[in-house]
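Input (structure):
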């Protein structure tokens, strides 16, 4: 019924496998056999693509597909050096490539800890399931489409969503892609969070969003609070969530980096990382059994 989609580059291969391995543990063996994994990449080598295919088969998914793709020629990278054009590939999924009626898109800096397929249960065929961004939940707040609320006061306070998790019908993918192209062409002056802003800009005039509860895209906060309290200016949530379905390690302090504080959920991630590395050794590919040298959301 559904495909899990990821966008992966060479620097992000190992984290993507951690995400997939953890994802497999959250659903039953029968569900894994009926689910697909679909990957878009800019630069994976054929060897690493083959390793990913073998890994996906080993953890029990019934179908794997990978394609090399390029982002839109209008793709604009504004915010943060750790973000690459790979993020824009999320708009390149097609119905034919999925070969499934639904897509669950997952950023590769996430750790699924419970079943994340729930939002599909009541998702309309013309709806895109998204979670509100925890640090910038509304237009005009901090860096959510900066400048737009001044030019369009009527849009101030409208919801702003994180693009790291999607739930959508394959029928809507062409519409999303075309809408983002228009946003990139006409709204570049408002872009700060790159592809995420382009998606949000389009959604303001197209009522396709179906809000999804925050537990399905929960920001990991403790590693930030280990160094400063800046997140408390933007969220009052307890940094130790009791019911997350997915932990999202936003920002540059990725959990696989040795410089990141070893908080509870970072340790949980590193346990999953060690487990993934053991599986890769069993597959005989030692070339990616190492920490990525940089990060990307």
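Output (sequence):
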């Amino acid at each position: 019924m559904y495909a899990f989609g990821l966008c992966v580059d060479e620097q992000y291969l190992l984290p993507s496998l951690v995400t997939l391995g953890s994802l497999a543990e959250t659903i039953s063996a029968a569900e894994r056999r009926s689910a697909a994994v679909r990957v878009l990449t800019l630069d994976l080598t054929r060897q690493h693509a083959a390793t990913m295919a073998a890994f996906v088969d080993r953890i029990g998914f019934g179908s794997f597909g990978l394609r090399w793709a390029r982002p839109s020629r209008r793709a604009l990278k504004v915010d943060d050096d750790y973000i690459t054009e790979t993020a824009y590939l999320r708009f390149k999924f097609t119905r034919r490539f999925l070969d499934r009626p639904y897509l669950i898109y997952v950023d590769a800096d996430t750790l699924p800890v419970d079943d994340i397929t729930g939002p599909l249960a009541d998702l309309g065929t013309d709806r895109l399931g998204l979670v509100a961004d925890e640090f910038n939940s509304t237009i005009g707040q901090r860096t959510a489409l900066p400048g737009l609320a001044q030019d369009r006061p009527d849009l101030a306070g409208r919801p702003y969503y994180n693009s790291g998790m999607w739930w959508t019908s394959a029928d809507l993918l062409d519409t999303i892609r075309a809408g983002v192209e228009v946003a990139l062409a006409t709204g570049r002056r408002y872009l700060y969070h790159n592809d995420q802003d382009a998606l949000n800009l389009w959604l303001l005039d197209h009522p396709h969003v179906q809000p999804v509860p925050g537990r399905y895209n929960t920001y990991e906060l403790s590693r930030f609070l280990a160094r400063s309290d800046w997140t408390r200016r933007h969220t009052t949530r307890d940094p130790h969530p009791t019911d997350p379905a997915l932990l999202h390690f936003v920002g540059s302090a990725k959990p696989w980096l040795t410089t990141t504080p070893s908080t509870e959920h970072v340790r949980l991630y590193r346990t999953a990382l060690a487990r993934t590395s053991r599986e890769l050794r069993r597959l005989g590919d030692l070339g990616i059994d190492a920490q990525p040298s940089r990060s990307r959301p």
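Notes: The radius of gyration is 18 Å. The mean pLDDT is 91.
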